[in-house]
Amino acid sequence: MTSGLWELVLQGVWVTVQLLFFSALLATAVSFVIGVGRTHRLWIVRFLAGFYTEVFRGTSALVMIFWVFFVLPPAFGWQLVPMWAGTLALGLTYGAYGSEIVRGALAAVDPAQKEGGIALSFTPWQRMKLILLPQAVPEMIPPFSNLLIELLKGTALVSIMGMGDLAFSGNLVRLALQESAEIYTYILLIYFVIAFLLTRVMRGLEKKLKAGVGKAAAKSKAVTPEPAGIGGVR
Question: What membrane topology does the UniProt entry give (predicted)?
C-alpha cells in the first residue's frame, strides 16, 4: 500500500480507539447504575432496571445504531454526529450486558459481609460503597474484559453510518486497490493487536485490585484484637 492509504487506515484506527473509549465509559456507567438498581430494596427500581436490561439485551446493536442515527433526528428535531450516535447506541447496548456482570458480582459477595454492615448501622449506600463494591469489583474485571473485547468488535458496526472507523477505512482501501485478502488480513491483525493490548491492561488491573483487597483484609485482621478468655487470660 502507498503511504496515503496507510494514513487512511491509521486514521480509521484512531477513530475506532476514540469510539471504543467513549462507548466503554458510557457502558461502564450504565452497567453500575443498572446493575446496582437490580439489587435495590424497592421493587419499582428493580423492575425498571430489569426492564432496561431485557430491552437492550434483546435488540440488535446494528438496529439500535440505525434507530439512534436515522429515527431520533426526525422524531426530536436534532441530529447526532456519527461519533456520538455510535457511542450512545453501543454504550447503552453493551451497558445492559455489563449490568448483569455487576448484579452477579454483588450477589456473590458473602451474605455475612452484608449482615456485618447492617450490624454496624451502615446505610445501604455505605454498605455498597465500603463493603460490597470493594469486594465485587475485582471479580467483575474478567467478564468486563471479555465485554470490552466484544465492544471493540462491535465498533465495526458504525461503518454503516459512513463513519471513518477502521472497518470503513479498510473497505475504502480495498476498493482502491481491488485487493481483499491483503487488506482484510491487515485489518484483522490490527483488531487483534488492539484486543491483545486491552486484555493485558485488564489483567494488570485485575491483579492490582485483587492485591489491594488482600492487603486490606490482612490489615483489618492485624488490627482486630483477639477475644479475651476467662478472667482476661487469652
Answer: Multi-pass membrane protein
CB 183 within 8 A of CB 168: no
Cβ neighbours for 10, distance < 8 A, ≥ 6 positions apart: none
Are the C-beta atoms of 57 and 97 separated by less than 8 Å?
yes
What distance in Å separates the CA atoms of residue 55 and residue 76, rounded to the nearest whole number? 21
Query: What contacts 200, CB < 8 A, 6 or more positions away?
Result: none
CA angle 163-96-133, nearest 5°?
120
* Tens-digit pLDDT profile for residues 5-46: 788 889 999 999 999 999 999 999 999 999 999 988 899 999
Q: Are 23 and 94 in contact (CB under 8 A)?
A: yes
Closest CA to 53 of 68, 33, 72, 71: 33
How far is 142 from 148, CA to CA, in rounded Å? Answer: 10
- Kindly state the cell numbers that stand for 158: 458504525
At 38 the three-state DSSP class reads coil
pTM given for the model: 0.84
Helix, strand, coil percent content, the chain, rounded in steps of 5: 85, 0, 15
